[in-house]
Design a protein that fits this description.
The structure holds 2 protein chains of 2 kinds. By secondary structure, chain A is of the alpha/beta class. Chain A contains 5 helices and 11 strands; from the N terminus they run βαββαβαββββαβββα. In chain A, the strands form 2 sheets. Chain A has a 9-stranded mixed sheet with strand order 2-1-3-4-11-10-9-6-7, sandwiched between helices. A two-stranded antiparallel sheet of chain A has the order 5-8. The radius of gyration of chain A is 16 Å and the shape is globular. Chain A starts with a strand and ends with a helix. Chain B has a 7-stranded mixed sheet. In chain B, strands 23-25-22-26-24-27-28 form a 7-stranded mixed sheet, with helices on both faces. Chain B has a 6-stranded mixed sheet with strand order 1-2-3-6-4-5. In chain B, strand 2 and strand 3 form a beta hairpin. The radius of gyration of chain B is 26 Å and the shape is globular. The chains are: A alpha/beta, B alpha+beta. At the A-B interface, helix 1 and strand 6 of A face helix 8 and helix 10 of B. Chain B: It is found in: Cytoplasm. Chain B: One of its GO terms (biological process) is 'de novo' IMP biosynthetic process.
């Protein structure tokens, strides 16, 4: 798998993401600068990492979505390329129009740093096929603005077309209000594009890839990608 | 250009000197050094450099007593932070620093800029910061403004640390009415650098460019160091303009840009602009290098128009660094800072005059000889008065009003022992992907070093109520507890940073607390091979004449060769519980005595440093041998609280053997004797035999399993009830609206 992570000023989980990708591919991903205007040829996966691009001083992800390289990322997605956006990266994807909806301030109005559990709604994508449908896995969440919002028509369409990838749930897989700490609409934690090749999610599966650090609950996501692009 | 700056009128100068916090005899020294009346800028430079905050004039004579050397110490006190060798060619760089006064005036920004300042102290030496910790002391939540202070401080620490992407992995919090008018916010940063690539602050090379990088200079924080060197009064709210505003986004860019430049060979010396901003950084860099420095302030990046030389020299605007570059490397450096969208300006050069000269708009604004600014700086051996020794409290003389069950439930829900989850849920503890033991998982935080198996263990500790009762014993206890917490995860304790928070040093009883605490700390550091490599002193922590509890907060750092060796405190079923160390039932100054019996009385528990060493070395040996499944040191609340904390963390109960008949039961369960650990092991008999062979007191106290703590012949206390009592306190207190 040829993967690249895009560096925006203020992002801070690029190293975590690089470690997760290196763990499944055996090599470090390329790091690209936000002022670049083209992606290297033959990339399988573009990753928009977590952090506080431009300090989140405007809407989260809004400035980064206007970066020069985002035109190339949009072209990559339009060609059917895969894009993963995590946390601030998810916010960038919604701001760039690559995914619908928006991420609002957490319902509690506080930054939330804790474990959450996510239920896998689709296990037939390049991001999730090493999970079972309905499987629940644990991940770190660390965000102030992770409250997914879209209008009802959009939410109905996402659910109708099967584009909800992940939902907050209890460890037993029940989708409850208590398990939905940031208040996301319909407990949505992760959203897919119609071609299933762009995934945005708020929690950080890249922090659960090492048994010596915090377990390997997030590893199947990266193994799915590596397996999907094994030939490449 | 003229040869002399525009001087103040002598009478006006004398009046201003007093307003700036200079004592009359200190101002006389200024006149003697200059041989004339100062200019406004010169008076500003002297007053901040000679403030308690920058000069340590009351504390330095005592701090010299602290041991600062060990074979693994690369850099002790005197630089921006301390540096120790942690093996494999790596160095750990760390320091703790207070931001007490600003955090009371403006809690969010005070705490946030405290985190920003300590981060800069660490990355200015070449380290990538890998962890933040803190030590917080608040008043009682019903005190005026206190909930707003608690909320603002926690949000500020999170707001800054989360954004810069350095995990906040540990800390401690106490509540006591003595902090009602003067909370403490001590922030600690730990970073990692190659041991042979440490950057220092001594300027060198006549003609070398002096370079300013980072954010622009504004009028914020002018005279912040002076404010931090005075007692509080009712008008402290009016001092809000002296508090700085933090920009963690700029700090993140500054970290990346500085580390990128440090990978080249362009830098001669570098220092952050912290307290007293451009003044202290330029004076200290030139002073340490034994050179002179000339600054041209017209070239300082400015956020506001019409700033005077005085304002620019005294501003404490955040996220700024001062560097001396090798000749001809300006372009390399500028390209890096431009890439990161930060200001870069050459604002002067190094001279051979031994003086600092400051020019602005063609005029000379200041011309001060550097050597006497340091050598003639005031240094006080202030009078001390010893704290009277308190009598030892006889445990048998204190009746137990509640019994163990009610006492335990009350204690685990009390302010000083309740769950800190409400706080740490607002701090990103995982960013970086290396946090192996996060808050609540172990006695110390454990963070692995990227691309290595090696990990650092880190903790902050102090028990201020012990320090008030007996500052010497309390000072020793703070160091011993930090050493114990590192030991309890399996780490080898290496060194500490200290943050000395005390009241007004001009009062003999306060200066006596300070001197005694240092004496106790020094004894513990020596006995435990645990030297001090950096630190910070915060005095005048008083409001309306009432001092805080003496609070020498200790930040300890240790190393584990392999992160897989680290143990946590969560109990699992089917294990023998073995208590290491001697239990005498010491109730004086215990939390049980305060919370259950309603007394703050008696001498605090004595610290037997030989026993600390022997017991701790034994425990660490067993952990590294792989036979210990969980470990927790005994501190606040004693044995039963420690066991309850292990049970709650692991959702596992335990069945306990009867307490020894020789002690009152409440003294056995809740006494706070030192040098003790509770271990959970598969083979208790083997551990007891090993302890006996090592001459270490060890007692099997029970076995883990079930859903409750079952006391012999006594109550069965469900873990769920304990958790409920433990978890509800802070959320209920801080409920929004």
């Amino acid at each position: 798998m040829k993967a690249a992570i895009i560096l925006f000023p203020g992002i801070n989980r690029e190293r975590d993401m690089a470690l997760a990708l290196a763990r499944v591919t055996g090599r470090k991903p390329q790091m690209l600068w936000h002022r670049d205007t083209a992606l290297p040829a033959g990339l399988d996966l573009v990753v928009l990492p977590g952090g506080f691009s431009y300090g989140d001083y405007l809407r989260c992800g809004a400035m980064a979505a206007q970066s020069p390289i985002m035109q190339a990322v949009k072209a990559h997605a339009a060609r059917g390329g895969h894009v993963l956006g995590v946390c601030n990266g998810f916010q960038m994807l919604t701001e760039a129009g690559l995914l619908p909806g928006a991420l609002l301030r957490n319902a509690s109005l506080r930054f939330l740093s804790m474990d959450c559990q996510m239920k896998v709604e689709r296990a037939d994508t390049a991001f999730t096929n090493r999970f079972q449908r309905g499987q629940v896995f644990r991940a770190t969440m660390a965000h102030g603005d992770g409250n997914y919002f879209a209008d009802d028509a959009t939410l109905d369409r996402l659910e109708g077309e099967g584009l909800v990838a992940l939902r907050y749930a209890t460890p037993q897989g029940e989708v409850t209000a208590a398990a939905n700490r940031n208040g996301s609409a319909r407990s949505i934690a992760g959203v897919l594009s119609p071609n299933l090749r762009v995934l945005g999610l708020m929690p950080h599966p890249e922090n659960q890839v090492d048994p010596l650090i915090d377990g390997t609950d997030g590893l199947p996501l990266f193994e799915s990608l590596a397996e999907n692009f094994a030939a490449a | 250009m003229t040869d002399t700056p525009a001087l103040l009128d002598p009478a006006r100068a004398k009046q201003l000197a007093a307003e700036f916090g200079l004592k009359p005899d200190e101002y006389d020294r200024v006149l003697a050094i200059l041989g004339r009346t100062p200019s406004l800028t010169e008076l500003g430079v002297f007053s901040v450099m000679w403030s308690e905050h920058c000069s340590y004039k009351s504390s330095r004579v005592w701090l010299r007593e602290l041991p600062t050397k060990a074979p693994w110490v690369i850099q002790g006190p005197g630089e921006n932070a301390g540096v120790i060798d942690i093996g494999e060619g790596l160095a750990a760089i760390f320091k703790m620093e207070s931001h007490n006064h600003p955090s009371f005036i403006e809690p969010y920004q005070g705490a946030a800029t405290g985190v920003g300042g300590i981060l800069r102290d660490v990355f200015t030496m070449g380290a990538r910061p890998i962890a933040n910790l803190n030590a917080l002391r608040f008043g009682t939540p019903d005190a005026p403004r206190m909930k707003r202070v608690i909320d603002g401080v926690v949000r500020g620490i999170g707001g800054y640390g989360n954004c810069v992407g350095v995990p906040t992995v540990g800390g401690e919090v106490n509540f006591h009415p003595a902090y009602n008018g003067n909370p403490l916010v001590n922030a600690m940063t730990v970073g990692i650098a190659p041991a042979d690539r440490i950057f220092l602050s001594a300027a060198a090379g006549v003609g070398n460019p002096v370079v300013y990088v980072g954010s622009k200079t504004g009028r914020d924080g002018i005279h912040g160091a002076t404010m931090a060197s005075a007692e509080f009064s009712a008008d402290s709210e009016e001092k809000r303009p002296t508090v700085q505003i933090g920009d963690p986004f700029a700090e993140k860019l500054l970290i990346e840009a500085c580390l990128e430049l440090m990978a080249t060979d362009a830098i001669v010396a570098i220092q952050d602009m912290g307290a007293a901003g451009l003044t202290s950084s330029s004076v200290e860099m030139a002073g340490k290098g034994g050179v002179g420095i000339e600054l041209v302030l017209d070239d300082v990046p400015q956020r506001e128009t019409g700033m005077s030389a005085y304002e620019m020299m005294l501003s404490e605007s955040q996220e700024r660094m001062l560097m001396v570059l090798k000749p001809g490397r300006e372009a390399v450096a500028e390209a890096i800072f431009t890439k990161w969208e930060l200001d870069f300006a050459v604002i002067g050069h190094i001279t051979d005059t031994g003086r600092i000269t400051i020019r602005h708009k063609g005029a000379l604004e200041a011309d001060i000889p550097l050597a006497p600014l340091e050598s003639e700086a005031p240094l006080y051996r202030r009078p001390t008065a010893e704290t009277p020794k308190l009598p030892v409290l006889d445990a048998a003389s204190v009746a137990d009003p509640l019994g163990p069950e009610a006492a335990l439930l009350k204690l685990v829900g009390s302010l000083d022992l309740c769950s800190r989850r409400w706080i740490w849920d607002q701090y990103d503890s995982m960013v970086g992907g290396q946090t192996a033991k996060r808050p609540g998982a172990a006695d110390a935080a454990v963070v692995r070093i990227e691309d290595h198996s090696r990990a650092l263990a880190m903790t902050t500790d102090c028990t201020p109520r012990y320090c008030l009762a007996d500052p010497e014993a309390g000072g020793a206890q703070a160091v011993a507890e930090a050493w114990r917490n590192l030991t309890a995860v399996g780490a080898k304790p290496l060194a500490i940073t200290d943050n000395m928070n005390f009241g007004n040093p001009e009062k003999p009883e306060i200066m006596g607390q300070f001197a005694s605490a240092v004496r106790g700390m020094a004894a513990a550091c020596t006995a435990l091979d645990f030297p001090v490599v950096s630190g910070n002193v915060s005095l005048y922590n008083e409001t309306e004449g009432r001092a805080i509890l003496p609070t020498p907060a200790i930040g300890g750092v240790g190393v584990l060769e392999d992160v897989a060796q680290a143990v946590g405190l969560a109990l699992a079923p089917g294990l023998d519980l073995v208590l290491i160390g001697e239990t005498r039932g010491w109730l004086g100054q215990s939390l049980w005595l305060r919370e259950i019996a309603g007394q703050e009385a008696g001498a605090p528990p004595p610290v037997d440093l030989a026993a600390e060493r022997r017991n701790g070395d034994f425990v660490r040996g067993r952990i590294l041998a792989g036979t210990v499944k969980a470990c927790h040191d005994l501190s606040d609340g004693g044995l039963l609280v420690a066991l309850a904390e292990m049970a709650m963390a692991g959702d596992t109960g335990a069945t306990l053997l009867p307490p020894p008949a020789a002690l009152p039961a409440h003294a056995h369960w809740f006494g706070e004797d030192q040098a003790r650990y509770l271990l959970a092991v598969t083979d208790g008999a083997a551990l007891l035999a090993e302890a006996a062979a090592a001459g270490v007191p060890a007692t099997r106290i029970g076995r883990s399993g079930g859903e409750a703590l079952v006391l012999a012949g006594g109550p069965s206390i469900s873990v769920a009830r304990l958790q409920e009592a433990h978890e509800r306190t802070l959320p209920a207190l801080m409920a929004d609206g």
